[in-house]
Amino acid sequence: MELLNRSRRLRTSSAIRAMVRENSLSVDDFIVPLFVQEGKGVKSEIPSMPGYFRYSLDTLTEELHTILGLGLKSVLVFVKVGDELKDNSGKEAFNPNGFMQETIKHIKAVAPELYIMTDVALDPYSSVGHDGIVSNGKIVNDPTVETLCKMAVSHAEAGADMVAPSDMMDGRVLALRQALDNAGYQDVGIMSYAAKYASSFYGPFREALDSAPVDMKDIPKDKKTYQMDPANRKEAIKEILQDVEQGADILMVKPGMPYLDIVRDAANEIEQPISVYQVSGEYAMIKAAVANGWLNEKEVVLESLIAFKRAGASLIASYFAKDVAYWLKE
Ligand code: PBG
């Protein structure tokens, strides 16, 4: 054949493939989710997340050294608290001496160079497993936002570098920005879960934190009145643009793999950094297939992550962050 363009020419050796490669992964791209609980000597594997653990503060110390040693720069902190601390108001969320606040101080003391991001939503503190306050069968927006503001300021006081509201209440980014500024925390950033879908891929996470909505009369069984409908695309851009306008510093799309179209739409639309969350169910799926010998873990994980970069994300929260940092060093 007389072909002028033969695409395969640029695939003939690993050298030329590397030279024309459009995207790459770096340890700087990753955010490490951390699950922390009270107690001593705890390193508890999450049953549906093989190889991923919940730590108590003493065992977390070693984990933080490992994370730093791998060159990773940031963590996203989630805490599991006892049922006795949960209620419908979520007031434990802004207890200055609460477990999240204690955890933030601990991380800052052990690893001052680590950039600390914290989850802001009421579900770990909610006796009914919702991200907001429930009243007459509804998750009430404005009172919830007031509580989230107190929560975010208490995280900043404890030393958080950035708060990550994952609650999907309306208007919370602006309210958080104003609350942080009024308290003197102009440099504390906001990574907004801007397009967060009501996804069934969060199952293992809710097991890890014991935070699923309870099965009770007058309590909504799912989060569909605040998280987004997986069928919607244009609405995601609306959410993202709103959060940009309200002062979000980083815009997140969540989950990851099934929502690459949304990541790309966001990248085409905004100039701010975009992050993506490869969530617990995505981790569980890959781990299950690997355990069966059906997929090659390293190859499939790296492929799933480069897809996020290709789609337009610059930051990736992933339970594989440590594995990738290790592989990149090899
Ligand atoms: C809570 C929150 C969830 C996740 C992050 N923050 C669960 C939910 O919305 O029910 C999910 C993360 C994961 O599945 O890895 N607001």
Automatic annotation (TrEMBL):
Keywords noted in UniProt: Heme biosynthesis, Lyase, Magnesium, Metal-binding, Porphyrin biosynthesis
Location of the active site: K196 (schiff-base intermediate with substrate), K254 (schiff-base intermediate with substrate)
Residues holding Mg(2+): E239
Pathway stated in the Swiss-Prot or TrEMBL entry: Porphyrin-containing compound metabolism; protoporphyrin-IX biosynthesis; coproporphyrinogen-III from 5-aminolevulinate: step 1/4
Catalytic activity of the protein: 2 5-aminolevulinate = porphobilinogen + 2 H2O + H(+)
InterPro entries (alphabetical): ALAD, ALAD_AS, Aldolase_TIM
Protein name, as recorded: Delta-aminolevulinic acid dehydratase
Organism: Parvicella tangerina
